[in-house]
Amino acid sequence: MLQGISEIAAVCVGLIGLIGAATTTGLPMWKVTAFIGENIIVMETRWEGLWMNCYRQANIRMQCKVYDSLLFLPPELQAARGLMCCSVALSGLGLLAALGGMRCISCFQGHVIITDFYNPLLIDAQRRELGEALYIGWVTGAFLFASAMLFLCRRLPSDKGSFDVYHPANLLSYKPRPNKSTLMSAVLQVEGPVCLVSEDATGLIRLQELIKAPSRYSIKIKIRQLPTGSKDARPLLKEMKKGKEFYVIFDCSYQTSADVLKQILSMGMMTEYYHFFFTTLDLFALDLEPYRYSGVNMTGFRLLNIDSPQVASVVERWAMERLQAPSKAETGMMEGMMTTEAALMYDAVYMVAAASQRASQITVSSLQCHRHKPWRFGSRFMNMLKDAQWNGLTGQIIINKTDGLRKEFDLDVISLKEDGLEKTIAGNNRLNKVWKKIGVWNSQTGLNLTENNKDSSTNVTDSMANRTLIVTTILENPYVMYKKSDKPLYGNDRFEGYCLDLLKELSNILGFSYEVKLVSDGKYGAQNDKGEWNGMVRELIDHVADLAVAPLTITYVREKVIDFSKPFMTLGISILYHKPNGTNPGVFSFLNPLSPDIWMYVLLACLGVSCVLFVIARFTPYEWYNPHPCNPDSDVVENNFTLINSVWFGVGALMQQGSELMPKALSTRIVGGIWWFFTLIIISSYTANLAAFLTVERMDSPIDSADDLAKQTKIEYGAVRDGSTMTFFKKSKISTYEKMWAFMSSRKNTALVKNNREGIQRVLTTDYALLMESTSIEYISQRNCNLTQIGGLIDSKGYGVGTPIGSPYRDKVTIAILQLQEEGKLHMMKEKWWRGNGCPEEDSKEASALGVENIGGIFIVLAAGLVLSVFVAIGEFIYKSRKNLDIEEVSVGQCEWHNKY
C-alpha cells in the first residue's frame, strides 16, 4: 500500500511539474513592465516571453506578436527556449515511464470501500461510502510529503561573514573583504547591464551572490575573465567597448588593476560614460596621475583609516623607510604608500605582542621537529587574543569569542574626484587625497552612502568646465537655421536659431565649450523593425555626440536607449492645413441669425397662438359684443377675433406693429401678453445676431479635428518619416489614431514626408494636411497667412536635451534649464524666434457700409410681396366682379319672371 501511495504521489507531482513547465514555456509573462508618461495617453503594460511580446493598455484587450526571427533573439533567450522545451519533453517521458510501472493502488481501505460499493452481490445495507477520516488522512499525507520535500530541498545557510576564513585547529586568520551586500547595493543603483571581470576562476566563487542577482533583480550581468597567460587585456576591453558595457566590476589585485587602468586609458575608455568598480582594497594607493582630467567614474573600498593621526604617523614612517629602500619593480602604486596587507600585518603583530605582554606568566618550552605535541598554553593564549581590543591602522579591532573572527569594522566607500587629483602634505604627513569618501560600509549595519554622485558643496559647473562637447542637431526652423551672411562662416557661427541660443545660455551657465554638427542622416531618431535606431538618437547611443540640442521629443521608447533632461518646451501634435476660402454673406443672410428649425418653430407658434386665441375668444362671453348699441335688447352679437383676425393679431405682434384688435377678456389678454413676451425675446435675439451675420465673412473648413481626418479619405494627411509624430500614431492603441496610421502606412510614398519643409510645401500646393508639433505650426502660421492650425492638441509632450545613458551631464543640464525657466529666458527666446511680422489686416473703416450682397434679400422679399399683393388684388377684383355679376343675373331673371306672370 505504501508503495502504491508513493507511486501515485510521484505521478501527481510529476503531472503538476509537467503542466507547470509547459505553462511556463508558453506564457509570455516572463518579464513585465508598466509605464505612464508625459507623452502616453493611457497606461500600457508590456510582457516579454520566450515566444512573443504582448501589450495591453487600460480597458483595451491584450495584443501579442510572435518574434520575427530566431537568430535575432538574445543568446540567453535562445538558450531558455531550448532548455524549457527539453524540460517539457523529459517531464513527459518521465511521467509516461512512471505510469507504465506504477501499481495504481493508493489506499487499501479506500479500495475495499469502493469495490464493495459497486459489488452487485451485496445488499444496500452493507454498502459504505468514503468517510471524512480518509480525506483527512490523505490531506495529512500530502502535508507530510511536502514537509519531507522541504527538508530534502532546504539549503544550508551561506557564509554571512566578511572574511575569507581559514581556521584549522588552533589557528586564527582573518582578512577583511567587502561583503556581498555591498556590491549588491552598488550594482543595483546602475541603469544598465553590468560586466563582471575576474582575474581568475576563484573570483566567481567570491562573487557568487552577485552573479545570482539577475534571477532576483531586473539587471543583466555579463561575466568575463582577464587573460591568464598574458597581461594584455586590450582584446577584452575592445569587446567591452564594442558591446557598450559601461558599468564594469574588476575583481583583481592592485597590481593587475594598475595594468588594466593603463590599458583602459590607451583604449579611449577613460571617459565620463564609464563606471569602474574595483574590489581590491588597495585601489586608493595606486598612482592615478594619468587620469586627472579624464572624468571617469571610479569607485572602490578602503580599509586603511587615513584620517586618524595615529595612522598618519605610521604611514609617514612607512613611506620614509620605503623611499630609502632600494627601488623595486614597477607595481603601479604611489611611492611609499602602505598596502592594506601591510596594514593588516601591522595590526596582527601588534595584537600578538600585546597579548604576549599580558601573558608574562606563560612559559614557552622547547619544541621538537619530529614530534607533534601541542602547546599547553595555546588555548589560553588564543583567549587572550580574543579579549584584546585595539584601534589599529585598519580601524577598531574586536574579535568574536565564538568563532575567532573580527567583527564591527568599517570600510570607506571612495570615489575618484571629478575634478582630478589632489595631493596634500600636512606637516610631515604625506597622505593620498585622490579619493572622495562617499559612504561607509559597516559589518553590522551594511552600506550607508553619505553623499550622492553630485557633491552638494561643489558647483555644478566643476565637472564641465574646460570641456568641449560634441552637440548633434538637425536643421529645423526656427530651432536651427543657416545664418545668412555675405561672408563665409565656419564652425558654430554657421548656425542660428532657438536651439543655438539655448546652447549658448547652457554654455554660459555650465562653463563648457561646444562644437555643433548636423546629424549625418538628417533624421531625429526612430527604431526600425530590427530594433536599430537612426538619426540623432543613434549618434547618442554610439557616443558620437555628447548632447542632442534640437526639437527632439521625449518619448518612452527613446528614454529606454538615451537620457533626457527636463523639457525646455512643452507642446503637442496638431494639424497644419491651408486656410479655407472665405464666403461673403448671401443676399438672404438676414435669415441666418436664426436656424431654419427656429424659423419653422416661430411660424408654427404664430399659427398655434392664433388658433388658441380664436378658440378662447369664442368661449369667453366677454369677447362678444352688440353691434347695435342703440338697441340694447338685440339678440345679435358679434366677435372681432375671427380666424383671419386672430392670425393678423399674431403677425402684427411678431412684426412689432400691433393691430386695431384689442383683447377684452382676461383669458385672451393672457394669450396676447405671453405672445408679446415671446416675440420680444425672438426679435431681440434676432437683432443681436443680425449685424454679425451681415458683415462677417464666414470661413468654411472641410475638417475641424483629427476625427474629421480619420472619417474621410479625400484629403490626404501624414507626418514626417521616422519622427516622434509618426511613432506616436504607429504605437497608439486608440481606435481613431490606429485608423489614421493605417491610412498613412498604406500610402507611405505619398502620406509621409522627408521633413517639415517638404510637408509645408505640399500643404500649400495640394489638398494635404500635415500632422506636426504645435510650436512649429505656430511659427509657420505667423509667417504664412495661407496656413493655419486646425483643431486642438492631440497629445501633450515636450522637447528635451538628449544625452547618452548614464551621462553625467544630464542632471547638470536639467538644473541649468530650470534656472533659465525661472529667469524667464526660455520665454524671451521663444518670443524672439516665434514672433513674426504677422498677417496683414484687412482695410477697415470706422463704419462698415452694407452693400446689396448683404441685405439685397430684403429687397427681393419686398418686391415679391408687392407683386403678390398686386396679384391678390386682381384676384379679389375678379372674384368680386363675378360675384356681383351673378347677383345681377339673378335679379334680372326675377324681374322677367314677375313681368311674365
TrEMBL record:
The record marks 730 as: Interaction with the cone snail toxin Con-ikot-ikot. InterPro entries: ANF_lig-bd_rcpt, Claudin_CS, Glu/Gly-bd, Iono_Glu_rcpt_met, Ionotropic_Glu_rcpt, Iontro_rcpt_C, Peripla_BP_I, PMP22/EMP/MP20/Claudin. Residues 478-542 form the Ionotropic glutamate receptor L-glutamate and glycine-binding domain. This is Glutamate receptor. L-glutamate binds at residues 551, 553, 558, 724-725, 773. It is a multi-pass membrane protein. GO terms for cellular component: bicellular tight junction; postsynaptic membrane. The record marks 703 as: Crucial to convey clamshell closure to channel opening. Disulfide bonds join 785-839. One of its GO terms (molecular function) is signaling receptor activity. Keywords: Cell junction, Cell membrane, Disulfide bond, Glycoprotein, Ion channel, Ion transport, Ligand-gated ion channel, Membrane, Phosphoprotein, Postsynaptic cell membrane, Receptor, Synapse, Tight junction, Transmembrane, Transmembrane helix, Transport. The keyword Transport applies. The chain crosses the membrane at residues 79-99, 133-152, 598-617, 674-696, 855-879. It is found in: Cell junction, Tight junction; Postsynaptic cell membrane. The keyword Transport applies. Belongs to the glutamate-gated ion channel (TC 1.A.10.1) family. Receptor for glutamate that functions as a ligand-gated ion channel in the central nervous system and plays an important role in excitatory synaptic transmission. L-glutamate acts as an excitatory neurotransmitter at many synapses in the central nervous system. Residues 468-836 form the Ionotropic glutamate receptor C-terminal domain.
